[in-house]
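input
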Amino acid sequence: MSDPQAAESGPTPFERMGGEPEVRALVDRFYDLMDLEPHFAALRALHPDTLDGSRDKLFWFLCGWLGGPNHYIERFGHPMLRARHMPYRIGLAERDQWMACMIQAMEERAVDPALAQRLAESFFGTADWMRNR
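output
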């Protein structure tokens, strides 16, 4: 994922988000939406029956990616996002559902609009790169 901290001075995106509690709340809302909204069904189908592990991994990853603690790297090493997602069929529909779900979660969690826009641009680049069909 492109670095959301690039060319920024001052508080990190992690700090601007409100630290771990707000990153966790964003991740939880993202997975709640994925689990509940029918228009995210193709995305939900890529995940295990229970989303607990997915919630934790995204939370750990985002904390470090946003400039906070490197929980994910401490547990698993380098994220290797594309390699870790290769077993899952990710196409345009899945990419677009992931983005819509995250954008809705950021809006509902009232992430600062300028930060949300920067994050959405970074997320899109990575989500598009993850496509494998």
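quick obs: The longest helix spans residues 19-36.
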